[in-house]
């Protein structure tokens, strides 16, 4: 197990290196000049020269990347070109917000999605199944930003029972925090719930038709026990993969939700940073997301073994 | 029994959630009658209610900093105006009037501009706005941007008098010097450049309290403000990049002031919100087309350029872009602005004339022209394409990323054929100089310099009276827009402001789009 873990860790470092290198390269290859992207077009040559040097653009690509990488190894993500503050300072504020919101979204959507998927599969063809299927299909098709706008219009603008935007930590103002979180979480849950439900339903349908389930029924096991002990565990493998991918979003944030509700999270930061050509911020966000996804995949592989011992043996 | 317990639990949760939402939401939903009643009390009650409170505003884009040289777009101007003030202030006709200055004395013979300062003006850090400080501010801007004309020296002759000596007379001097935000040199030394730009210190009615990057900027009142006010306790600028989110926040009563886009303005008009802008154009932008006259091609022929101008149906463009709301532009200035030329006869929409000119230029079978535009301008560019193609042009659309466009028009790459053009409205000599002068830097990389225009700009810069400046600007607009037909102005995008009913005396968008009176703002 230790050897396996070390091997995966080594692979993860290689992946991270490649991701950061190619993102840095891609940002460098984007047409247009970062100085104009930051300062706009009404700038004089003297200003241009000053900022060009400040950004280190007079140095070759590999030198700039090398400097960034050496800083990273020492825990220094550099300084934001746009905000003119250390990137770590920006991340320290944004990361916990995104993490907080997305953990809630993921917890609700995963547990509810799995539960709805199971119910839907077990009661295949029933009214409940039809309702869940239609519900999932609708929210799989409707874009999140649209749901957000509609919710804002009715709940915030018309009824004025919820605020349209913002984020407050629960320990700062609990009531306000809850009110600000309701809509973003609802949008997040509705958009991710459908995928989880559909995936669980199809996995469960595949499993409940297996011979060992029929055998269990023939043995006279209770239906509840069959589902709990045999079906769910076997159906969970693809669902766990899906959850692994979802973990990436916990840190990466959802730019749409964060933009519609003006939440100062990672997704919002990343989108703004790309627009502003704030390379150190983009690099830091991408690095964190890549690292988390790599770690989540590693964790998923380990969980596979726990859920299905046959995989561990292999 | 178990089922019953579950039901009770769920009911309790739902009831709690509902009471939380309703209870907290009720705070914001103040019925209009109540608001009206509260504002209709006796005088003392009104006075009491008109003070205090936090003004809630938004930013569509976050400023990079607040050094006087950094302040470049509308949100940053408005935000800076709460903290820093300028030596002068534009009046409704666009003339610079003294504000922190007592008077501006121009002496073209000696090539000097004397700025006399008002007494008793202090920065929020306690330092005095004196001549030495103004001198430091001018030299700082001169060093960073070199955009204040040919300044030979700046002297603080006494604590209240600064004399600026030019090596070449600069008729835009008052506008340039008067438009500078004054920064406290003492605070700048203490905080350093990086520190100051994140926490500027000025003479304004508010102080910087905090700046949460990417989230909000908070200001608090300055109790020792030199003038009248401030009446409110503070201002909060929230970063809301999405236009729809800003609109929702305003309509839900979470923002007190909004500057919406044209579509959002229509929604607000329909909902009955009054627009407070009286002059939504001055200080704003001018949009149109600019021609590549440098490279070999059909546009080197002035007849082809004139034909393009005759093909532009301004009314149709404005209708499509703004539902007819934006004012039409056929020159640089807005009507009512001092530099507007009433007698200018420009090219009007006339397809027959357009075809005639094209035939004269040898293009009777039509002509293909590229239209270069930044991707963000796709809507306007498509409308322009439609309008020009109706007149028989074939337009090749060339969409480029914004910074590529900026680099092309400013950095020297140049553009093919026609480019979407943006300029400041209410042009001064200095503005003409930026694009058509001797050392241009803005939208100039594909323009062949026209000696007649360069000469007239130099004349305008050296003009010694307002009358002479007016003669030059009138003539310049004629040369640029008509005789040489280097650009085709189309419309001026208006900047509208809407405020909640309980906000008064903000005076935003009255003289120009980026001026207001933060010290007088009251919240009922």
From TrEMBL, chain A:
Pfam families: BPD_transp_1, BPD_transp_1_N. Residues 95-304 form the ABC transmembrane type-1 domain. Keywords: Cell membrane, Membrane, Transmembrane, Transmembrane helix, Transport. The chain crosses the membrane at residues 12-30, 99-122, 134-156, 176-196, 235-261, 281-307. It is a multi-pass membrane protein. It is found in: Cell membrane. It comes from the Bacteria. The keyword Coiled coil does not apply. Belongs to the binding-protein-dependent transport system permease family. PANTHER family: DIPEPTIDE TRANSPORT SYSTEM PERMEASE PROTEIN DPPB-RELATED (PTHR43163). This is ABC transporter permease.
UniProtKB/TrEMBL annotation, chain B:
Residues 1-22 form the signal peptide. Residues 96-433 form the Solute-binding protein family domain. It comes from the Bacteria. The keyword Lipid metabolism does not apply. Keywords: Signal, Transport. Residues 28-49 are annotated as: Disordered. Belongs to the bacterial solute-binding protein 5 family. This is ABC transporter substrate-binding protein. It comes from Blautia celeris.
């Amino acid at each position: 197990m230790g050897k396996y873990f070390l091997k995966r860790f080594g692979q993860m470092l290689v992946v991270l290196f490649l991701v950061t290198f190619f993102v840095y390269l891609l940002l460098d290859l984007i047409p247009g000049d970062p100085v104009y992207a930051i300062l706009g077009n009404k700038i004089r040559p003297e200003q241009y020269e000053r900022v060009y040097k400040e950004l280190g653009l007079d140095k070759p690509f590999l030198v700039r990347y090398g400097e960034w990488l050496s800083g990273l190894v020492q825990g220094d993500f550099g300084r934001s070109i746009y905000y003119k503050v250390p990137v770590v300072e920006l991340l320290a504020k944004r990361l916990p917000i995104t993490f907080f919101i997305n953990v809630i979204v993921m917890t609700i959507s995963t547990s509810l999605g799995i539960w709805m998927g199971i119910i839907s599969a077990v009661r295949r063809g029933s009214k409940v199944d039809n309702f869940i299927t239609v519900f999932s299909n609708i929210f799989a098709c409707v874009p999140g930003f649209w749901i957000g706008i509609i919710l804002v219009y009715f709940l915030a603008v018309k009824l004025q029972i919820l605020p349209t935007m913002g984020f407050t930590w629960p320990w700062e103002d609990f009531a306000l925090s809850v009110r600000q979180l309701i809509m973003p979480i609802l949008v997040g849950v509705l958009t991710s719930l459908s995928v989880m439900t559909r995936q669980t339903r199809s996995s469960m349908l595949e499993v409940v038709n297996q011979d060992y389930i029929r055998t269990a029924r023939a043995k006279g096991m209770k239906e509840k026990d069959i589902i709990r002990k045999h079906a769910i565990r076997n159906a969970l493998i693809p669902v766990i993969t899906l959850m692994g991918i979802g973990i990436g979003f916990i840190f990466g944030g959802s730019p749409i939700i964060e933009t519609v509700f003006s939440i100062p999270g990672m997704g919002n930061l990343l989108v703004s940073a790309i627009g502003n050509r704030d390379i150190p911020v983009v690099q830091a966000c991408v690095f964190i997301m890549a690292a988390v996804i790599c770690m989540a995949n590693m964790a998923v592989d380990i969980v596979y073994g726990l859920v299905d011992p046959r995989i561990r043996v292999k | 029994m178990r089922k019953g317990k579950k039901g009770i639990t769920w009911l309790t949760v739902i009831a709690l959630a509902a009471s939380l939402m309703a209870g907290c939401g009720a705070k914001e939903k103040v019925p209009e009658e109540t608001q009206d009643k509260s504002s209709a009390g006796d005088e003392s009650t009104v006075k009491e209610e008109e003070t205090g409170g936090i003004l809630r505003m938004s930013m569509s884009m976050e400023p990079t900093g607040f050094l006087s040289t950094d302040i470049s777009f509308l949100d940053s101007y408005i935000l800076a105006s709460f903290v820093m003030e300028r030596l002068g202030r534009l009046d409704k006709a666009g003339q610079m009037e003294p504000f922190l200055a007592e008077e501006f004395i121009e002496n073209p013979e000696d090539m000097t501009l004397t700025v006399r300062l008002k007494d008793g003006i202090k920065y929020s850090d306690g330092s005095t706005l004196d001549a030495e400080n103004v001198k430091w501010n001018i030299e700082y801007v001169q060093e960073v941007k070199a955009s204040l004309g040919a300044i030979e020296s700046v002297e603080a002759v006494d604590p209240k008098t600064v004399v600026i000596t030019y090596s070449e007379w600069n008729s835009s001097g008052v506008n340039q010097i008067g438009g500078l935000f004054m920064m406290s040199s003492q605070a700048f030394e203490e905080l350093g450049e990086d520190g100051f730009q994140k926490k500027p210190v000025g003479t304004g009615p508010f102080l910087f309290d905090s700046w949460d990057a990417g989230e909000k900027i908070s200001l608090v009142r300055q109790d020792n403000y030199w003038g009248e006010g401030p009446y409110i306790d503070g201002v909060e600028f929230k970063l809301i990049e999405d236009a729809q989110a800003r609109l929702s926040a305003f309509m839900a009563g979470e923002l007190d002031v909004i500057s919406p886009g044209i579509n959002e303005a229509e929604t607000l008009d329909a909902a009955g919100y009054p627009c407070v802008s009286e002059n939504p154009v001055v200080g704003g932008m001018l949009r149109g087309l600019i021609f590549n006259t440098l490279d070999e091609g059909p546009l080197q022929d002035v007849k082809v350029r004139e034909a393009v101008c005759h093909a532009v149906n301004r009314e149709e463009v404005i209708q499509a872009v703004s539902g007819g709301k934006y004012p039409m532009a056929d020159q640089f200035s807005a009507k009512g602005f001092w530099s507007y030329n009433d007698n200018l006869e420009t090219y009007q929409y006339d397809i027959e004339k357009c075809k005639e000119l094209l035939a004269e230029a040898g293009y009777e079978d039509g002509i293909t022209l590229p239209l270069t535009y930044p991707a963000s301008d796709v809507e306007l560019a498509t409308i322009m394409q439609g309008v020009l193609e109706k007149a028989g042009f074939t337009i090749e659309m060339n969409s480029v990323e914004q910074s590529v466009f900026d680099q092309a028009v400013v950095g020297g790459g140049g553009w093919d054929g026609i480019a979407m053009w943006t300029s400041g409205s209410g042009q001064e000599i200095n503005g003409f100089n930026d694009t058509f002068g001797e050392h241009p830097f803005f939208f100039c990389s594909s323009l062949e310099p026209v000696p007649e225009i360069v000469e007239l700009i130099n004349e305008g810069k050296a003009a010694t009276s307002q009358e002479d400046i007016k003669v030059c600007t009138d003539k310049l607009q004629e040369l640029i827009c008509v005789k040489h037909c280097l650009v085709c102005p189309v419309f001026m995008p208006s900047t509208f402001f809407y405020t909640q009913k309980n906000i008064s005396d903000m005076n935003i968008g009255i003289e120009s789009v980026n001026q207001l009176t933060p010290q007088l703002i009251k919240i009922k």
